[in-house]
Amino acid sequence: MADFWNFPEFKRAVVREVSDDVNNAVRDLSSTEDVDLEKCRAEWGLYVQALRDLGLDVTVIPQDPKLPDCQFVEDPCIVIGDTALITRPACGPRQGETTVLEETMRNLGLKVRVVESDTATLEGGDVIFTGKEIFCGDSVLSNEEGFAILEETFGDDYPCHSIFVEYPEFHLKGYAALAAPGIIAMCDNEWGHPAWADICNVSNYKYKVMWIPDDFGNNCIYINGSIIHTTEEQKPDTFAVFQEEMADYNLIPMSSAEVSKVDAALTCQCLLF
Question: SUPFAM superfamilies given for it (predicted)?
Answer without folding.
Answer: Pentein (SSF55909)
